[in-house]
Structures are given as C-alpha cells and as structure tokens.
Amino acid sequence: MSGAIGLATVGMTKIFGDFTALEDVSIDVRAGDFHALLGENGAGKSTLVKCMMGFQPPTRGQVLLDGKPVSIADPRAARDLGIGMVYQHFTLVPSFTAAENLVAARGHVPAVVDWAKERKSLDAFLETTPFRVPLDRPVRELAAGEKQKLEILKLLYLDQRFLILDEPTSVLTPGEADEILGLLRGMTDAGLVSVLMITHKFREVNAFARNLSVLRRGRLVGAGAVGKVTTAEMTQMMVGDAVPRPRAARVAHAPVADAKRALEVVALYASDDAGTPRVRELDLHVEPGEILGIAGVSGNGQSEFIEALTGQRPIDDGRVFVAGQAFSPTRGDFARFKVFGLPEEPLRNAAVPRMSVAENMALRSFDRAPIAGVFGWLKPATMRARARDLVARYRVKTTSIDAAIETLSGGNVQRAILARELSEAVDLLIVVNPCFGLDFSSAAEIRNQILEARNKGTAVLLVSEDLDEILELADRVAVMSQGHIAMTAPIGETDRNAIGRAMAGH
Amino acid sequence: MDASHAAAPAPGGLVSAGAGARLRQAAEYIAIPLFALAVSAFLFSLFLLALGHSPSEFFSLLWRGGFGTAFSWRNTLQRAAPLVLTALAVAIPARIGLTIIGGEGAVVLGGLAAAAIAIPLAGMVPTIVLLGCMAILAATVGAGWIGLAGYLRHARNVNETISSLLLAYVAIAILNFTVEGPLRDPGSLNKPSTPPIGRENMLSPVPGLEVPWALVVGIAIAIALHLLMSRTAFGFAARVTGGNPRAARAQGLPVGRLIVLCTAIAGACAGLAGFFEVAGIHGNANAALAAGYGYTGILVAFLARHNPIAVVPVAILFGGIAAAGGLIQRRMGLPDATVLLLQATVFVVLLASETLYGRLRFFKAGARA
Ligand SMILES: Nc1ncnc2c1ncn2[C@@H]1O[C@H](COP(=O)(O)OP(=O)(O)OP(=O)(O)O)[C@@H](O)[C@H]1O
Ligand SMILES: [Mg+2]
User: Does B9 score more than 60 pLDDT?
Assistant: First the structure.
C-alpha cells in the first residue's frame, strides 16, 4: 500500500453565468491530514470539491498534487491520480452484494469473473483495512452505516489515497458516524490516506478532524488547526455578522373541549416494494397544536409509513382520519384538509429537478387561483411573483427563480420546498428529517418555523433520526420499532434512555 | 442506445430564463439537430460513394424532388401533413415521460373507423356532417387504442413502448381482416378495400392556399397542444409527472388519469391522421393506410425534441425527403428504400447527438454547467 497524498487548490474560481459560486479559494490539505470543510448552505463546498474531482471545470484555478500542478479533466483522471469521492447519496448497485460492487467498481472487469480468486484477493484486501462489511448480502439489505463503509472501502479498493467525503454522516446515526470517522482518522494517523470532509456537524469536526477551512459565500474566510479554533469562532466565520433569529418560544395551548384530532391513524398496514410487510398495525394520533415526534432506528418502517400516508405507496389495510374525517391522499384531500409536508430527500420526492425554482414552488398551488385562471389557464407572472416573495422570505439562495431547482445546493432545495409547504395555512404538517444536510443556522431557523406553525395550531408529525431534534421540538414522542409504535410518552415524562431502549426493541 | 433517456423532453419552460441565456439554450436546441443532420448527410454521402453514386447529384435531386417546384411542394406538404399528427402522437406522451412508438396502429384504425362509418352515412347526410362524423370517430378510436397502452402502463405497469408497438401490429391485422372480409367492397378486386366514401365527399385542398386541410388542421392542433402543455394546469401537471413521478404522486396528482389522457390525446392525433388519409387521399380504407407514417412520426418527434411547434418544420423536411424518393429512384437507379436508409441514418446520428446537450461550452455560458 502506498502512502497518503496531499492536495491543494490555488485560486479556485467557479462562475455560473453571472453568479460567482467560488472566488479565489486556496486550501491546502497535506498528506495524512483529516481536513474539515465547513460553510453555510450554498457556501460553495460541493462546488469546490466537484472542481477538484474534475466534475466541473473551474473557471480559474489550479489543483496541486503533492505540490505539483496537475490537470484533472474528469473524474476518471482524478481516479487515476488516486483521488476518490464519497457522495451524499449512495452509488452502490442495490441488488449486487458488497463483493460484486467492489469488483464492478474496478471498471475493467474480465468477461468471466473467477470468483474464488476474487474472493481471496478481496479478503486479503480487507485484511489491510479496518472496515468490516458483510460481503455476501445484497447491498439493499445493509444498514446505512454499512453502505457508507462500503462506499469508503470501494475507494480504498481502487487504491485511492485522497478521500473526499461530501456530508458522509448525514444519513448515519451518531454511533455509525463515530465508528466510520474514527476508523478513517486512524488511517490518516497511519499516513495511509488523506481525508477532506464536508460537514455541518461541529461535534465531528472537533472529535475527528485535524485542520479545517471555512467557506462563506464562495470565499475562504478562515482556516486553522482544530483545537486552536473554537466552535464559536467557526460559527462566526461561517455566518459572518448575520444575527441569528431568536428561538421561537413554545406556547402552551389550553386544552379545547372536544377538539377533533388533527390526525388519527388506525391499524395501518403497508409493505415495501418487494411486498414485505413493513408497517404493521400502526396506531397513532396527533392533536392540533401538537408536535408528535417519531423516533426510531431508520429502516423500521418509517419511510413506508410516511409514503403510505402521503400517497406514494398503497395502504394495505387500516384507516386514516384527518380532522375526524376519512382521508385519502389525493390532491383534493391535501388541499381540503390543509395537509402539507416535507419528505426525506426532497429533490427526489418533492421536486422536479429539471423544472425551475418558480415552477417547483408552485407545485402545490398551480391548479388553483390565483395561479390558475379559468380553464386552468396559468398566469406565469403571478407564479413568478409568488416565487420571488418566497425566495426572499425564506432566504433561498439561488441564482434566479428561473434556475432549475437541481442547481441549488442541497440545503437550499430543502428550504425551497419548506417555503412552499409553509406558504399557506397548514392544519397538518408531515415532516421527515427536516434538517438533514442543513447548516446549524438554517437548521435552527427551520426548527423555528416548525415550532411557529405548531404555536399557531398546526398539528405536526415529525419523523426524525436525530433524537436531539425530537427532544427539542416534540410535545410527545412515539418510538417506531419493527413497523409499529412501541412506546408513546409526553416529552416531559420520558428521557433519552427510555427512548433508546424502546428504539432497540426492549 | 438509451431511447428513453433521449426521449426526455427539454425542460418545459413557461417561466423563462434571462433573455440571453434563454436565447443561447434555444440556439443549442437548433444547432445540435442541424449538426446531426449535417453529420448524417456526410455519412450518407460516404454510403453513396461506396455504391459509386454521386452525393451531389443525390442531394440536388432530393432538393428538386422535395422542394424545387410547385408540384414537388404539393407532394411534400401532402406527405408532411400526416407526419405532423403522428409526431404529435409521440411528442405529447414524451412530455409525461412515456415513449409511445405505436402511432401507426391508431392511424390504421382511425382510417378504418372513418371509412366504416361512411358506409351507412354516405349519401344520407351532407358532406360536412359526414366528414365531421368520420373525423370524430377516427379520433375517438385512435384515442382509445393508444389510451389503452397508457392504461396498461398505469394499471398493470406494462411497458408502453412495447405494448403500443404490439398494438400497432394488432391494428394492422384488424385492418387487413376487415377490408378482406366483412367490409370488403366487392368492386375492389386486386386491392381489397372498403367501399369508397364517394368522390363528392372527399376533402380537396384549402381553397386559395392549395395546401391540404390535413396540414392546416395539424398545425392548428400543434399550436393548441403546445399551449395546452406549456400554459395550462393540465400541461403543468403532466410535466411534473414526466419530470418526477414520485413527486407527482406525493403531490396527490392523478398520475394515472394524466397518463391515460396524454396517451389518448396522442392516439386522437394519430387517428385523425388516418381520417385525413382516407378522406383526403385514398377515398377508402385499405392496406395502404399502413404506409409507415406512424413510424416516421417517431423520427420527426425526436428531431423536434418533442416540441409540438418544432414538429411542423421537421415534418415538412421529412415530407420532402419522402416526396423526392420517386425522382431519385428514376434518375439514379437507386431503390426506393434509399430514402428510408437516409431516414435511419438521421435517426441514429440524432440519438447519438443527444449526448452533446450541455457539453458544448458555447451554449453553457449563462446556462447550467
Ligand atoms: N450548476 C449550477 N448552476 C448554477 N448555480 C449553481 C450550480 N451549481 C451550484 N450552483 C450554486 O452555487 C452555490 C454553491 O452551491 P454548493 O452546492 O457548492 O453549496 P454547498 O456549500 O455544497 O451547500 P450545501 O451545504 O447546501 O450542500 C449555490 O448557491 C448554488 O445555487
Ligand atoms: Mg453540498
């Protein structure tokens, strides 16, 4: 195994049209460094690493490998130089086993694979890394943490010596994240690889990184050694002089006599795509002005439950009532009962990537006045005016409201969708991991929005893998385990340990 | 070749980017197909040279036979008219993410239905009523036929590309069975046909313009469908469904209904093409209805990037190529199928050129990178 390599950028600049996403950014990641790249949503972090990987040609600027200028025209060139990247989304083939994924990643696979030989060399390879992954199960059966390990293993298997990780832990539980980052840190300490990691989590930076760089609005605003820079200083570098909005206070509601339950789910059953039952006899209810937090280890049926509730998946059995009336997930009922929501992976589930920001913001309302006139004739001017207003109010960073929504940074897609979903009166809000991939100030702001909606009487169903978020926001917590609700309790009458035990299925 | 990818329509834009960027992007959608046409012409020239023919003679004949004289223009427009309608039958479903290639089936059945309803009505009702009934029935039958492919897609998850193609073969079989059996005009001896609708009931060209009614109606429908897809809530919902079905479902959009409606609109267009063939050209229904307009329409729609307006000039171009076939055959001694080969070359090069979108630097400044 060869050693780690160092990578630096000099004067990296990227201009999209008349928008400067990166301006003169020079960062230096020495061989064996574990380097954290911080910045608000839309600061240009992903753009920077994409330029380093040859995904996008920089407008200006250079990449130095161990001090020497190199040209990286495309990701294959990066790979040949030993630079690899783990993306925010998994790139594994779900139906392949881990072993097959690794062999296929090599690119030049022989027509007939001698599996006995491959297995031996794979085992020998695994011996040299600290990562352990079951090799013979299809990837779709692996937990998120195992998949992420496999993504990293794939890079090591291709003998990549410089690993770029774009928010590698946003899909992981804190435990999984700690394990993976700890192992990576060990490898950098041994001088085997260098790591450049984009993250929004200060905890991870302080625990695992050695050096850090901070971007703000496309510029490098600070760099230093972890430990020397305090968390407060990092925050200051990230947001500049922007003053965060004050935390919304929780308003206590007086109990209303015979108020109708905002949401009531009775004995719900649903299955995954393969027909395996995933939601079994699930009962829950949410009162108006209440946040019900659903905690649980991912993969215990939360996705299937939410998809069944919002019409993306058929309901096998059971009933759903909204405001005391039978509810079916049609456009008519969404509008009539004022049901809104932010699903997970909004770009995949709640947006049309190639349509513009303005059009995406109209997804809820395009077929009603004021956007639609007689015979469904659209009024583009109204649509755009509304979008402009929402972009300003929710501070969505975009080059223009006409840009395709897929060009927005991850966090800004999230904001754009949330802006759309909160732009009207909401009686029931269904949100899933609303702060995934958001920087801390955006996360705080979005939590504020949710709390404000609750204070105004909206019932909120919050599914989150972040227990801290649930403890902060929820009035009541329900734990989902193996497809049904294993425990519910008012937030004041339970604690982290009790919830953790229920999550583990005890 | 990943045809389904190639079928992805241009991001439908009702809200437009800044004028400059928009112009550049529009330029990309014109420049790349033109480039593809040039490459095809070059490849085809090589083919002609290999056969010992002169490419310059070929292309000058192509020009003369398609566009050179008033007569060739008439011929060209007559062939272009059904192509506009059959291309729309591909372009509209493409907007909702479906690749329908069985328009031929709706052409054939539309024509058959039109001829069949004329048998009892001809002579009983005024021409205008007769033609109206024929057109409506043809469109309805076509809508049902392609709508069936859409319904199967939605309800049974049957691949619409395959099912529409297979349905086209079924349709041709129905046509042949009907004109040789139950509806055969005893007077049609070596070319089994339905009874004629009557010379007095046939459509003549638009007075004064000398263009076929089919083309005028086709252009009107193209404009109407363009407005429907880009300026109405229905079109918006269809584009959302085409762009991301998961999101469409989560928005509670009636995905199934949208799919069936879009495919039915497609079938109605193709069915009308069949009506115009019967009422404007043949005067009855026979095997000549399956002349391949449904298939050439696929080509036209792809070259037009599924834009209903762009379909019109492209259809005229292809009408011209087809019209020139006879002349080329006579003058150069090349088989009639030569123009089919030219069309095939264009199609393959065109699909290959899809990979160029978004890669050329010139168009990128200002647009997405
Ligand atoms: N292809 C593109 N065209 C136009 N603008 C773009 C494009 N890609 C990125 N941008 C813009 O560049 C800015 C930086 O985006 P980038 O994805 O680098 O942010 P980020 O720091 O990774 O944010 P996040 O934490 O939200 O992922 C954003 O404002 C985005 O809208
Ligand atoms: Mg990013």
Answer: no
- Ligand 1 pocket, A415 CB below 6 A? no
CATH number where A60 lies: 3.40.50.300
Q: Is residue B365 over pLDDT 50?
A: no
| Sign of the dihedral through C-alpha A350, A355, A357, A360 | negative
Buried b or exposed e, range B169-205, using 16+ CB within 10 angstroms:
eebbeebbebbeeebebeebeeebbbbbbeeebbbeb
Asked if B131 and B139 count as a contact pair (C-beta separation under 8 A), the reply is no
- Residue A258 confidence (pLDDT): 62
| Residue B298 φ/ψ, nearest 5 degrees | -60, -45
Chain B residue at shortest CA distance from A372 = B233
Indicate yes or no: CB of A349 within 8 angstroms of CB of B365. no
In a domain, A274, yes or no: yes
The answer to whether residues A185 and A281 belong to one domain is no
Residue A396 CA, ligand 2 centroid: distance in Å = 14
| Substitution candidate for ligand 1 out of B25, B363, B364, B368 with most atoms within 8 A of CB | B368
Q: Assess whether A278 and A185 both reside in one domain.
A: no
Question: How many domains in chain A?
Answer: 2
Question: Which contiguous run of DSSP H or E holds residue A211?
Answer: strand A211-216
Is there a single domain that holds both residue A157 and residue A269? no
User: Residue A370: is the preceding peptide bond cis (ω within 30°)?
Assistant: yes
Check whether residue A186 and residue A307 sit in a common domain. no
| pTM of the predicted structure, to 2 decimals | 0.81
Query: Chain A: nearest CA to B101, how far in angstroms?
Result: 24
Is A151 found in the same domain as A216? yes
Q: How far apart are CA A196 and CA A166, in angstroms?
A: 9
Instruction: Tell me, in angstroms, the distance from the centre of ligand 2 to residue B365's CA.
Output: 22
- Calculate how far, in angstroms, residue A160's C-alpha sits from the geometric centre of ligand 2: 22
Mean pLDDT, all residues of chain A: 87
Architecture of domain B59-333: Orthogonal Bundle (1.10)
Protein residue whose Cα sits closest to atom 28 of ligand 1: A42
pLDDT per residue as tens digits for the range A102-155: 888 877 777 777 788 888 888 888 887 787 888 888 887 777 778 888 888 888
Amino acid at the residue A407? T
In terms of pLDDT, which residue wins out, B23 or B106? B106
Quick one: pLDDT at residue B29? 78
Tokens of A133: 């992954």
Q: Which of A354, A357, A374, A432 is the best residue to mutate to test the B interface, defined by the most B CB atoms within 10 Å of its own CB?
A: A354
Q: What is the ipTM of this complex?
A: 0.81
Same domain, A130 and A273: no
Residue A55 Cβ inside 6 Å of ligand 1? The answer reads no
Q: Is B13 on the interface with A (CB under 8 A)?
A: yes
The CB of A37 under 6 Å from ligand 1? The reply is no
Give residue-wise pLDDT tens across range B172-183: 999 999 999 888
Contact A278, A268 (CB under 8 A): no
Domain that holds residue A231: 7-239
Residue A332 resides in a domain: yes
pLDDT score at A1: 47
Q: Residues A234, A214: contact at Cβ < 8 Å?
A: yes
Residues A200, A277, single domain; the answer is no
Select from A357, A407, A414 the residue to mutate for testing ligand 1; criterion: most ligand atoms less than 8 Å from CB.
A407
In A, minimum Cα distance to B17 occurs at: A402
**Are residues B14 and A343, on separate chains, in Cβ contact within 8 Å?**
no
Domain with CATH 1.10.3470 in chain B: 59-333
Residue located nearest, by CA, to atom 17 of ligand 1: A409
Residue A153 and residue A211 share a domain: yes
Residues 6+ apart with CB under 8 A from A288: A256, A259, A260, A261, A262, A427, A457, A458, A459
Identify the closest residue of chain B to A387 by CA–CA distance: B15
Q: Is residue A479 part of a domain?
A: yes
